[in-house]
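Render Temptin Cys/Cys disulfide domain-containing protein in 3D.
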Amino acid sequence: LPLLVSAALLGAVLALPNYVDLIPNGANVRLPCSESNCAVGHQNPAGDGALDAFGYDFAIAGRKWTQALCLQDSDGDGVSNGQELGDPECVWRVGESPARSSDISNPG
């Protein structure tokens, strides 16, 4: 139950700038959205409501970019979260530039 409550609370704020800065290229995720950033971690591109698979996994990881979260394939598309977010080697740290900043896709 505490985990569900934590995930629900996180769902309301995952797309806020301070959370977007906690994942590589968090502000550069545009797909499937076309004109503005998607609310990474939410099912609704506007950012409110239920979490998507990546949002749930991010909550489980303690709202931190971990090697385990990087290596996961939250959306089951055959591409790891790290590859989708430009950190294929899972070495990115908050405040650093990711290995890649183009061809970024939504991990959730």
